[in-house]
Design goal:
The complex is a heterodimer of chains A (about 350) and B (about 400). Chain A is α/β, with parallel strands linked by helices and about 350 residues long. Helix content of chain A is about 35%, strand content about 25%. Chain A has an eight-stranded mixed β-sheet with strand order 6-7-8-3-9-10-12-11, sandwiched between helices. In chain A, α4 packs across α5. Chain A is globular. By secondary structure, chain B is of the alpha/beta class. In chain B, the strands form two sheets. An eight-stranded mixed β-sheet of chain B has the order 6-7-8-3-9-10-12-11, sandwiched between helices. A four-stranded antiparallel β-sheet of chain B has the order 2-1-4-5. The radius of gyration of chain B is 26 Å and the shape is globular. Classes of the chains: A alpha/beta (about 350), B alpha/beta (about 400). Chains A and B meet through α8, α9, α10 and α11 of A and α10, α11 and α13 of B. The structure holds adenosine-5'-triphosphate, adenosine-5'-diphosphate, iron/sulfur cluster (2 copies) and magnesium ion (MG) (2 copies). The site of adenosine-5'-triphosphate has 12 residues of chain B, from β1, β2 and α4.
Chain lengths: ~350, ~400
C-alpha cells in the first residue's frame, strides 16, 4: 500500500543529529528516512534510546543546541525544506501547521499561569484575536477535548489537574491552531490504561475531525496496533523498517521488528511464546559498526553485517527495510557460501 | 526451604522463651497447599486535613481591625481565632472539623495464595496495590485483619521472630534504583541478608553471591559494580538476586518490569518463570500490564479503591469477566493485533481519592450499572464457579458461597 506522491505531507530525508558532549559525540540519529501522508497516523516505535524523541525534535528544529546539532538531511513539508527556513519562519510553522505534545505534560505547562491563560496565549500567538475572544476559544477547545465544566476549570492551575487532564490540556493547546501535523511523543506512557484509552480515543476523533496527520511515538506495540495506519521501526539512530500496519504485524522482515513483536504478549499467546532480544541498545558514542543491530541479531552474517551499513530497500510498494538479508551484498555473501537465503532464514529460526 | 512444621516449630521455640510465652501467637489451620492467607486486611493512613486558611485569614484580619478600635475585645477575638484553628482538641459542638482524615488505601481484602502459583494483583494506579503488598509482608503494620504465613499470624510476632519469617518472604520493587543502596557494590548488596541473618560470611558468602549473580543472568565481573553502573534491566536482576539470597518460598513482585523496555521486560519475565520452575517459588505479581498478567498469572485479583472487585483464575477474569470494572479495565488494554481493534468501554472520569469514600460500592461514581442500592449497601460476594468470585449488586446470577459448586 503506498499512496501517490501528492498525498505526502512531510518527507524526512537522510536526517542526522549528533550531540557533542564532554564524554564524546553521541550519534543519536545517523540517518532517518520516512514520509507522512495526509491525514494518516504514522507510528514511530523502538526501544528507549533508539532516537524517537530526537527525531521529533529534529523535525521541528528544536534540538537543544548546544550540545545537539542537526548535521544533514532535509525535512520537506508542503514542498519546502524546513531546515532552510529562518528561525522566525520556523516558529510560525510550529504551532500553526505542526504541533507537538510531550510525554510529561507537567514539564511543558507553566506552573504559575492558569491553564486558560496558557491556552489563550497560544491562540493569541498564532491568530488575530483579542484576549476576551481567546478566552472564549480556550473554553470551547477545553470542552472539546473532554474537560468537564471547562468554564470553571479554565481558571485552574496545572497542579490542580490530574495527569490525564493535563494531557488533555496539552492536546487542547496543540489543537487550538488547527495543525496539519501533530507529533505526539509518548502521550499516554505515564497514564493508566483506562485514561490512556480515553486519550487515544480523543486523538483518533480529533485527527478525523480536523483532518490531521499524527506521528505517534511510543514503545507500546499495543498502542501502535490500535492507532496507526503505518509504522516506522527505529533502532539506534536508523529506521529499520517501514510498512503499513498489517505488514508490520503479520509479515515483518527485519530481525529487530520480529524480535520486538516476539517480546510482547500477543493475544492468544501463552508464557512459552515470549521470546527475548539478547543484549541491550548500544552506547551511541561508540555504536557498533555496519548494521548497528548486529551484536544482538540472530541472523548476523559475520563478515558482512558488521562491515557495511545495509542500504534502504523498498521490497514491496511502501514496505521499506534496512537489512543485509535482502540486499545484493547479502545475497552474494550467502551465495558465495552456497546457502540459499530462504534456507538460511529457516535454519536460524529453527535454531532459536 | 524448610517445611511448614519446621518454621512453626522454630517460631514456637523462640516465642516460648519470651515473657508472655507462646500464648501470644495466633494460628490458623490452612489448607494443605495454601502458603499465605490474607484475611480482611485493612491499611488506613491518617492524613491531616489542611486548615481552611482563607477563613482563618479573614477572621484574623477582622480581629485585627477590631483590635485597632477595641484593644481588649480584639485581643480576645484574636486568641479565639488562633485557638479555634490550631489548638483545640476535638470538641464536637465547637470544632466540628476533625483534623485527621483516614485514607483507606486497603479496605478489607482477602487473598489465598497456593504454593507454586503466580497470583496477579491488578488495578489502576493509586488503588492500593503497593500498600497491600507492603502490608502483606509486614513492611507496614495493618490497621486490622491478619496475614497468615504457613498458618502463623505474622503480625503477632516480635521482631526477633519476624526475622525467621523474613527469610521466607521477600519483595522486589518497581524502581530498582530507589531500593538499592547506591554506595554498595552488587556483591555487598546481595550479601547483606547473609550478614543480617548470620547465615554466611567471608568466602562462603562470596561463593553464594556469585552463584546468585549467575542464577539471575548477570556475569561474575558485575559483582563489584555499583547500582548506577547497571542498566535498568540489570538493576532489576540485582534486586531479584538479593530477594533470592535467603531462598524464600514467597516473593512479592511490585511492578518488577513496569519501567523496563519490552525486550528487557521479556527477559526478566523469563527469569521469573525459570526461577519458579527451579526453586518452586510462589509469587504475588503486581502489574498494570494486563496482557502480561493474562499469560503469566494462574489467578488474578482485580482491585479498585482498596477493595477486591473480582477474582478468579486467569481464564475466569480475562475470558469470562463479570464485574463492570473488570470489563472496562480489560477493554481499555490495547491489543497488539491490528485485526482485533475492539470497541472500548470508556469509564467516566478518574479514580476518586480513597479519603472518606461514600458508603456502598466503591465503584459507584464511575459504574455504568449503578443503581440506588449501590449507594447504600456494600456489594455482596457472589460466586460463579469454584474459583470465580465477583462483588456486585447488579451482575446477574451467582451463588452466595463457593460451596454451591462442590
Ligand atoms: N505513606 C503514605 N501516606 C499517605 N498516603 C499514602 C501513603 N502511601 C500510599 N498512600 C496512598 O494510598 C493509596 C494507594 O497507594 P499505592 O501506592 O498502594 O497505590 P498503587 O496502586 O500501587 O499505585 P501506583 O501504581 O501508582 O504505584 C494512594 O492514594 C496513595 O496516595
Ligand atoms: N540533550 C542530550 N544530550 C546528550 N545526549 C542526548 C540528549 N538527548 C538525547 N540524547 C541521546 O540520544 C539518544 C536517543 O534519545 P531519545 O530520542 O530521547 O530516545 P527515545 O525517545 O527513543 O527514548 C540517546 O542515546 C540519548 O542519550
Ligand atoms: S543487517 Fe545483518 S545484523 Fe543487521 S539486522 Fe540484518 S541480518 Fe541482522
Ligand atoms: S455494586 Fe453497583 S456500583 Fe458497584 S459495580 Fe456493581 S453495579 Fe456498579
Ligand atoms: Mg523519548
Ligand atoms: Mg505502586
Amino acid at each position: 500500500m503506498s499512496r501517490p506522491q501528492e498525498d505526502i505531507l512531510l518527507e524526512v530525508k537522510g536526517l542526522r543529529t549528533y550531540f557533542f558532549t564532554e564524554e564524546g559525540v553521541v550519534k543519536a540519529i545517523e540517518s532517518i528516512d520516512f514520509v507522512v501522508y495526509k491525514s494518516e497516523t504514522l507510528g514511530l516505535v523502538g526501544e528507549s534510546g533508539s532516537g524517537k524523541s530526537v527525531s521529533a525534535l529534529s523535525i521541528l528544529g528544536i534540538v537543544p543546541d548546544p550540545p545537539g546539532k542537526v548535521l544533514r538531511g532535509e525535512v520537506v513539508f508542503h514542498g519546502q525544506d524546513l531546515r532552510k527556513l529562518s528561525s522566525s519562519e520556523m516558529r510560525k510553522i510550529r504551532g500553526n501547521q505542526i504541533a507537538m505534545i510531550f510525554q510529561d505534560p507537567m514539564t511543558s505547562l507553566n506552573p504559575v499561569f492558569t491553564v486558560g491563560n496558557q491556552i489563550a496565549e497560544a491562540i493569541i500567538l498564532h491568530q488575530k484575536v483579542n484576549k476576551k475572544e481567546a478566552r472564549e476559544k480556550s473554553i470551547k477547545i477545553m470542552s472539546l477535548v473532554g474537560i468537564p465544566s471547562a468554564d470553571e476549570r479554565v481558571d485552574n492551575y496545572p497542579f490542580e489537574f490530574s495527569g490525564g487532564m493535563r494531557q488533555r490540556v496539552m492536546i487542547a493547546m496543540a489543537l487550538c491552531c488547527n495543525p496539519e501535523l501533530l507529533i505526539a511523543d509518548e502521550p499516554t506512557t505515564s497514564l493508566d490504561v483506562t485514561i490512556q484509552a480515553q486519550i487515544l480515543e480523543l486523538l483518533k476523533a480529533t485527527s478525523e475531525e480536523f483532518d490531521m496527520s499524527i506521528i505517534l511515538i511510543t514503545h507500546d506495540m499495543g498502542v501502535i496496533a490500535e492507532m496507526c495506519d503505518r509504522v516506522a521501526v527505529m533502532y539506534a539512530g536508523y529506521i529499520a523498517e517501514v510498512g503499513d500496519i498489517m505488514t508490520i504485524f503479520r509479515n515483518p522482515f527485519h530481525p529487530y521488528t520480529r524480535g520486538l513483536l516476539g517480546a510482547i504478549p500477543r493475544p492468544d499467546a501463552n508464557r512459552e511464546d515470549l521470546t527475548i532480544i539478547r543484549g541491550a541498545i548500544p552506547n551511541l558514542i561508540n555504536p557498533p559498526s555496519g548494521c548497528r543491530f548486529h551484536p544482538r541479531c540472530d541472523y548476523w552474517m559475520q563478515g558482512l553485517c558488521e562491515n557495511e551499513v545495509p542500504v534502504l530497500l523498498e521490497l514491496e510498494p511502501g514496505h521499506i527495510i534496512m537489512c543485509h538479508l535482502y540486499t545484493e551484498e547479502g545475497k552474494a555473501f550467502l551465495a558465495q557460501r552456497k546457502i540459499d537465503p530462504e534456507t538460511y532464514m529457516k535454519q536460524v529460526l529453527a535454531a532459536q | 526451604m524448610s517445611s511448614d512444621t519446621s518454621l512453626k516449630d522454630k517460631i514456637l521455640a523462640r516465642a516460648g522463651k519470651g515473657i508472655l510465652g507462646s500464648s501470644r501467637l495466633r494460628m490458623k489451620e490452612m489448607e494443605e497447599d495454601v502458603v499465605l492467607e490474607i484475611v480482611n486486611l485493612r491499611k488506613f493512613f491518617e492524613i491531616p486535613i489542611p486548615f481552611e486558611t482563607t477563613w482563618f485569614l479573614i477572621a484574623f484580619i477582622a480581629s485585627l481591625v477590631v483590635f485597632a478600635f477595641q484593644t481588649m475585645v480584639g485581643l480576645i477575638l484574636m486568641g479565639a481565632v488562633i485557638v479555634a484553628y490550631f489548638g483545640l482538641p476535638y470538641i464536637p459542638p465547637f470544632n466540628k472539623r476533625p483534623k485527621i482524615a483516614y485514607l483507606k488505601a486497603v479496605d478489607g481484602i482477602a487473598i489465598k495464595i497456593k504454593r507454586g502459583k503466580i497470583i496477579g494483583l491488578v488495578g489502576e494506579s493509586g488503588c492500593g496495590k503497593s500498600t497491600a503488598a507492603k502490608t502483606i509482608i509486614r513492611l507496614l503494620e495493618p490497621t486490622s485483619g491478619a496475614v497468615y504465613f504457613q498458618g502463623i499470624d505474622i503480625n503477632r510476632l516480635t521482631s526477633e521472630e519476624m526475622k525467621e519469617v523474613r527469610r521466607h518472604m521477600q519483595i522486589v520493587f518497581q524502581d530498582p534504583y530507589a531500593s538499592l543502596n547506591p554506595r554498595a557494590t552488587a556483591h555487598d548488596i546481595i550479601a547483606e541478608p547473609f550478614d543480617i541473618h548470620g547465615i554466611a560470611s567471608g568466602d562462603e558468602a562470596s561463593f553464594r553471591v556469585l552463584k546468585l549473580i549467575k542464577d539471575v543472568g548477570l556475569a561474575p565481573h558485575h559483582a563489584y559494580r555499583y547500582p548506577h553502573e547497571f542498566s535498568g534491566g540489570q538493576r532489576q536482576r540485582l534486586g531479584i538476586a538479593r530477594a533470592l539470597a535467603l531462598e524464600p518460598d514467597f516473593i512479592v513482585m511490585d511492578e518488577p518490569v513496569s519501567n523496563l523496555d519490552v525486550s528487557v521486560r521479556a527477559a526478566i519475565i523469563q527469569l521469573i518463570l525459570d526461577l519458579q520452575k527451579k526453586m518452586g517459588l510462589t509469587y504475588l505479581f503486581i502489574a498494570h500490564d494486563l496482557s502480561l498478567v493474562k499469560i503469566l498469572c494462574d489467578e488474578v485479583y482485580v482491585m479498585y479503591l482498596g477493595k477486591i472487585m473480582e477474582a478468579g483464575t486467569s481464564d475466569d477474569v480475562f475470558e469470562d469477566m463479570k464485574h463492570p470494572y473488570t470489563k472496562a479495565l480489560i477493554s481499555a488494554v490495547p491489543v497488539a493485533d491490528p485485526t482485533k481493534r475492539s470497541k472500548k468501554i470508556f469509564l467516566q472520569g478518574e479514580i476518586p481519592t480513597p479519603i472518606n469514600p461514600p458508603p456502598g460500592c466503591k465503584f459507584q461514581t464511575r459504574c455504568p450499572l449503578v443503581s440506588d442500592i449501590c449507594r447504600v449497601d456494600e456489594s455482596p460476594e457472589k460466586w460463579y464457579s469454584k474459583t470465580h468470585v465477583c462483588f456486585c449488586h447488579n451482575v446477574e446470577g451467582g451463588e452466595d458461597s463457593s460451596e454451591a459448586f462442590y
